[in-house]
Amino acid sequence: MTLPQEFTEYTSRLFGPERWERFLQSFLQPTPVSVRINPWKTLENPFPNAEPVPWCQQGFWLKDRPPFTADPLFHAGVYYVQEAASLFLDYVLRQVVTGPVSALDLCAAPGGKSTLMRAALPEGSMLVSNEIDRRRANILLENILKQGHPGVLVTHNAPKDFAKTNLIFDVILTDAPCSGEGLFRRDPTAVNEWSPQNVRFCAERQRGILRDIWPCLKDGGLLIYSTCTFNTYENEENVRWLAEELGADILSVPVVPDWQITGSLLTNWQQPVYRFIPGTTRSEGLFMAVLRKQGGKNAFSTLPSSLRAQLKKYPFLHLLSDGIPQPESKGREQIPSVAQALSLSAQEADFPRVELSLEESLRYLRREALKLPNSTPHGFVLVTYQGHPLGFVKNLGNRANNLYPKPWAIHNL
Fold this sequence. Notes:
The chain is of the alpha/beta class and 413 residues long. The protein is 28% helix and 22% strand. The protein folds into 2 domains: 5-293, Vaccinia Virus protein VP39 (Rossmann fold); 340-408, Nuclear Transport Factor 2, Chain: A (Roll). The protein has helices spanning 5-15, 17-26, 72-75, 88-96, 112-120, 134-147, 159-163, 188-193, 196-213, 236-247, 307-311, 338-342, 358-365; strands at residues 33-37, 51-52, 59-62, 79-81, 102-105, 126-130, 152-155, 169-175, 217-227, 248-251, 274-276, 286-293, 319-321, 328-330, 333-335, 353-355, 379-385, 388-395, 400-402. Strands 5, 6, 7, 8, 9, 10, 11, 12 and 13 form a 9-stranded mixed β-sheet that branches. The longest helix is centred in the middle third of the chain and has 18 residues, at 196-213.
């Protein structure tokens, strides 16, 4: 892979010779593969010989990359394939959040950090997972529903939409759209799209996003800012701008030296920030900072218990899921939804269950018809793999109509 000349000149100076050489060598090595187990669905690791990621309670590195699409447990939300650096959010949240909170993941698609957030936040918390792009919002919705936690609401809004409301959050994660330098090793598209002009554009757009959402963070509330890029324009300089222009204190999170996390690379500015660099850390690229909003006048946030109701007060907010799965109406018939099947709040006694083999599960996930055991009651049946729900079929006796969502169906297996 040929890196852009401007990127090479700038980043080699930023990293320094030794760190830059390790970064280049990382392109010759296999990309690390990591997953995060969904603690709401299992506490057992389905991957033998996996190695724990030390900064995430449910994170594991795998020795190689299995065909995840061919694993029904992946589709059941038992685990999420997630890059190791982004798992650092788990450690950060457990360090700085000590009680139930109302939280917002502002730029949430495809959903890795949102599903991690809900697992890391204390019991009783409520999370709004938001994505401005409609296509990506649908992907986010699918991943949130598969994880199954009812304490996550999915929305499709611009940051300025939230500023029009009276919603005030205790914690806001802004994993901002960026120039993507940290993804170069695994994504050639990110390399082709990079330019100095795009870096500057991203830095300004990030400030606009932060400025729009800042009124929705309570005084004393926490903002976690992250990118998947290296340069200081989108990272340290935006954090410094946040502190100086919007009024925030930059918080320090204690980390273990063996993790090889890099601090600030901005000259004469040594505030606590956290940078993951391939070749130095066992991960792709990530930058993260934790800030606390100054001031004490706005002492009250939106209570987690009322966040769902409060969100529904604003008809201009596009709510894709309120966390409470409902059946779908088709004429006079109420058809159970896949959200009901995958939700942790589902009642096991509501529907008969049939356990599928691996081959049958893959047929189901391809939306093919199934033949269930003769003893299976007619009507709607919940199908499972290794005890984990996958979705519903309608058993007609001679066959079972597949109700798995068409956009979720797997192909080429």
